[in-house]
Amino acid sequence: MHIIDLNGRKKEVTDLDKAIQQAENFKDMHHIPPVESDKERQAYWRDIYKKLVQLKSK
Fold it and tell me: By residue range, what is the domain housing residue 22?
């Protein structure tokens, strides 16, 4: 199974539960103090998380 990330790249998912857990951890991470790239990175991981959860619900 696979998902397509925000950059249009196909990402293979071999362990869906582990991938969801990892994306959940990364989606809200940020530097202290926050840096501009944090917003971009968080948007990426939130998108990945959403797509993984949708994949699991199918």
Answer: 2-57
Pairing of the two strands 10-12 and 2-4: antiparallel
Domain count for the chain: 1
pLDDT tens, position by position, 1-58:
999 999 999 999 999 999 999 999 999 998 999 899 999 999 999 999 999 999 999 8
Closest by CA to 23, choosing from 11, 37, 36, 35, is 11
Residues 6 or more apart whose Cβ sits within 8 Å of residue 17: 56
**pLDDT value, residue 58:** 85
How many Cβ atoms sit within 10 Å of the Cβ of residue 51? 19
